[in-house]
């Protein structure tokens, strides 16, 4: 027996109208030791339907005015409620979905707090509690096995508590499951603002922090294998290569390196051949000469060779090279007299990584120019990008023969990186882990990879005007592929952002579960309305007014949307994103 508060007076489609009894205005009821909340918006009622209880949520209420006596002056008001069914209890278990509808005359009853909790808490034995229901203040245990077996989206304006929610989710997981997790899963956090480099998430025995920095060459580096670095796709990502001309050029460099071995002797012989071919050509090429001069400036060549090559000129009228008044000619007299011995001494015994790439790129361009197989003006922008970005990339990336070994949790901090590096490196890192996991996993997957991207609008934005369309398309296509295809390989993405409208709608729509904090921008709210089918009208209307730390939790894992107040973490586990305390600072 429970507290009856009304009866059904109309059923139109899935809209139910309930006439409320007079006792329904009481805010709180107590019955047989249980607490019951009175009727209000977003409260739940149970409608008896045979041996089942149909659970409805109250979406609105109004007064219907009726005159008790035609001759009397006093009207009579009847309180009516609008409700929507969300599921039903059967054999003591809540099942979501509209399978049954009540009939006129069925009684509506209040639900006890414990019954309300069972609507949201499907696993009563789980310890995965990250917060309380906002209104009822009941602890809710989330079904962790379903939450982390999905792509997650955490959205909210700055200061709304989304970083705390992200940290709380994974902290509670690691506190309860770290020993099991460590055997089968890897977690990679792309940390743009350095918020998770301290004691957050888990202990140092299970966590590695890679602090990338373009300010100094002494910081950590993200290590790539030789095969991974010498890949046309990887190099195309790093240097924003265009699809039709620059990527094929990079591919020829990589193929040439594999064909003629990646040893220093092979590169030295290539350089000697290009120096000789350029200076002794029957049809001198001034662009090839300029590239040769550029190459000599940043290589460890002898001072004599550098000086000699920079004193070579091109005489346009005669279409010939000259050196100190001596023309290069077919009998090689000038070359043999001044250059042969210096060129034969070229040795690249200690070159690798980005420097080797620069050398091979310039030598390959010289070779293509001499054989007339390339248009110089199409490749030159790529060469300038390699020259400009090589120094910064060499500070944050390294090339090693051994595979990259990760801990269970790897935090990659980009806080001290330049803006263009912040856009490029995460794409390379995501591709690295995606390809590595995809090629090593069984079918069905026997292990999982979780990529967590905080401040995801930095790399998943469609609005950037600072990059070419082709590069932006590639960047988005990579992450769209991961989020579309990753699940079958056991790869899951969690994205956190304060501007979901800036993120590709394809990516947002492919997320399975959402934790939505306060958002006030109309574009953000419109995106959520158009992409999240499980977000009901009432929950959506509350998003702009949510208090700090509160969020709407919805998605495929949850039977009904719920308002959750996320618990704050202890001070030492909080992400480093707290607001400045001006009262203390300016005291």
From TrEMBL:
InterPro entries: HerA-like (IPR008571), HerA_central (IPR002789), P-loop_NTPase (IPR027417). Residues 129-279 form the Helicase HerA central domain. SUPFAM superfamilies: P-loop containing nucleoside triphosphate hydrolases (SSF52540). It comes from the Bacteria. Gene3D superfamilies: P-loop containing nucleotide triphosphate hydrolases (3.40.50.300). It holds the Pfam family DUF87. PANTHER family: HELICASE MJ1565-RELATED. This is Helicase HerA central domain-containing protein.
């Amino acid at each position: 027996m429970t507290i009856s508060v009304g009866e059904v007076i109309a059923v139109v489609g899935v809209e139910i109208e309930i006439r409320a009894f007079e006792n329904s205005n009481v805010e709180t009821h107590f019955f047989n030791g249980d607490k019951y909340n009175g009727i209000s918006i977003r409260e739940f009622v149970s409608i008896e339907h045979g041996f089942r209880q149909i659970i409805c949520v109250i979406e609105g209420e109004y007064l219907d005015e009726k005159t008790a006596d035609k001759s009397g002056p006093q009207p009579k008001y009847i309180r009516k409620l609008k409700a929507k069914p969300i599921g039903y209890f059967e054999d003591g278990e809540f099942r979501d979905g509209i399978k049954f509808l009540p009939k006129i005359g069925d009684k509506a009853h209040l639900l006890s707090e414990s019954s309300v909790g069972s609507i949201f808490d499907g696993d009563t034995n789980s310890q995965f509690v990250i917060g309380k229901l906002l209104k009822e203040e009941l602890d809710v245990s989330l079904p962790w096995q379903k939450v982390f077996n999905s792509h997650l989206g955490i959205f909210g304006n700055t200061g709304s508590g989304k970083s705390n929610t992200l940290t709380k989710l994974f902290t509670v997981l690691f506190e309860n499951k770290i020993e099991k997790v460590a055997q089968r899963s890897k977690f990679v956090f792309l940390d743009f603002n350095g918020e998770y480099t301290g004691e957050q998430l888990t202990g140092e025995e299970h966590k590695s922090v890679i602090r990338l920095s373009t300010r100094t060459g002494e910081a950590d580096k993200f290590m790539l294998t030789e095969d991974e670095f010498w890949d046309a796709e990887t190099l195309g990502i790093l240097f924003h290569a265009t699809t039709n001309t620059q990527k094929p050029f990079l591919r020829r460099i990589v193929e040439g390196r594999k064909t003629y071995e990646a040893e220093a002797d092979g590169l030295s012989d290539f350089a000697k051949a290009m120096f000789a071919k350029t200076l002794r050509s029957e049809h001198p090429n001034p662009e090839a000469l300029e590239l040769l001069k550029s190459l000599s400036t940043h290589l460890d060549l002898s001072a004599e060779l550098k000086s000699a090559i920079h004193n070579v000129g091109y005489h346009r009228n005669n279409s010939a090279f000259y050196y100190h008044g001596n023309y290069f000619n077919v009998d090689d007299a000038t070359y043999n007299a001044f250059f042969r011995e210096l060129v034969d001494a070229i040795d690249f015994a200690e070159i690798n990584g980005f420097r080797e790439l620069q050398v091979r790129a310039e030598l390959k361009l010289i070779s293509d120019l001499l054989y007339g197989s390339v248009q110089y003006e199409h490749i030159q922008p790529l060469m300038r990008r390699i020259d400009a970005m090589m120094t910064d990339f060499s500070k944050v990336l390294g090339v090693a023969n051994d595979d990259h070994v990760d801990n269970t949790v790897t935090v990659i901090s980009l806080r001290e990186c330049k803006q263009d590096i912040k856009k490029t490196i995460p794409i390379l890192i995501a591709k690295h882990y995606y390809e590595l996991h995809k090629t090593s996993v069984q079918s069905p997957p026997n292990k999982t990879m979780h990529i967590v991207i905080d401040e995801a609008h930095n790399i998943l934005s469609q609005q950037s005007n600072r990059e070419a369309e082709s590069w932006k398309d590639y960047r988005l296509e990579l992450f769209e592929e991961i989020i579309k295809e990753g699940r079958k390989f056991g790869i899951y993405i969690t994205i956190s952002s304060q501007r979901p409208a800036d993120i590709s709608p394809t990516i947002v729509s492919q997320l399975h579960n959402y934790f939505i904090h306060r958002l006030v921008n109309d574009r953000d709210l419109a995106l959520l309305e158009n992409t999240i089918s499980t977000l009901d009208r009432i929950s959506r209307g509350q998003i702009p007014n949510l208090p700090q730390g509160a969020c709407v939790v919805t998605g495929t894992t949850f039977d009904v949307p719920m308002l959750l107040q996320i618990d704050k973490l202890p001070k030492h586990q909080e992400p480093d994103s707290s607001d400045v305390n001006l009262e203390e600072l300016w005291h």
